[in-house]
Design goal:
9 helices, about 220 residues, two-stranded antiparallel ribbon, mainly alpha, 5 strands, three-stranded antiparallel sheet
């Protein structure tokens, strides 16, 4: 249980490589929308604002040019994250899973400890996951939800069968939300649970942070 509570960042925009569709008519029906998920809009302005926060944070880094160059798909990455968060919320709700603020704070504290403190965590999240400081808590919410969803399904995320079980739950949630994406961002793939133009699997075997249990006798 201790290990499960401290498992941090099973999702990682940095390691995702290890790893909705607005027609012309739909676009006119939802002007200004980047996507419609479960009948709720995600505005283009929201996506752009999140991307702008990341760009502002990147410019304060000594590696700003490199960070900006590497994050060329930033707008798509942000839209993907916003949609995936809602899909995960739906899958968690369907499985009877809830997440508390305390759980998120525990994951954040563990991640900060492994990163050399809060500043280290902010640096890692910005450089590896394209997450601005004020977006960290929302991003880490997924780190709590995903393993709890797996637990509710009796699935082990470290095994192919466990990943398939959770993937099935996410796909079902995705389909139920009838995700519709502005064509400028691509389309949403329910089976892969990702934007067609942004390769971002929902799970990766390699984590950015992983709390290690003390060795016996240590």
């Amino acid at each position: 249980m201790h290990r499960r509570r401290r498992t941090a960042l099973a999702l990682s925009a940095a390691t995702l490589l290890a790893a909705p569709l607005l027609t012309a008519c739909g676009s006119e029906a939802h002007p200004g929308a980047a996507a419609v998920v479960g009948g709720d809009r995600i505005d283009v302005a929201t996506v752009q604002a999140q991307a702008s926060d990341v760009r502002s944070a990147q410019r304060t880094s000594g590696q700003s040019d490199e960070l900006v160059k590497k994050s060329g798909q930033l707008n798509r990455a942000k839209l993907h994250s916003l949609i995936f968060g809602r899909v995960l919320d739906r899958a968690a709700k369907d499985a009877g899973v809830s997440v508390s603020r305390k759980e998120i704070q525990q994951v954040q504290a563990a991640a900060a400890e492994q990163s050399g403190g809060d500043e280290g965590l902010r640096t890692v999240m910005l450089e590896q996951r394209w997450v601005a400081p004020d977006q960290i808590e929302d991003d880490l919410r997924k780190e709590v939800q995903l393993p709890k969803l797996a637990q509710a399904l009796g699935a082990d995320l470290q095994t192919p069968d466990g990943q398939a079980a959770v993937g099935k739950a996410l796909t079902e949630a995705s389909k139920a939300l009838h995700i519709d994406v502005n064509p400028r961002y691509g389309s949403w793939d329910d089976e892969k649970v990702q934007l067609s133009t942004y390769k971002a699997p929902w799970i990766t075997q390699v984590t950015t942070f992983q709390a290690q249990e003390p060795e016996a006798g240590a």
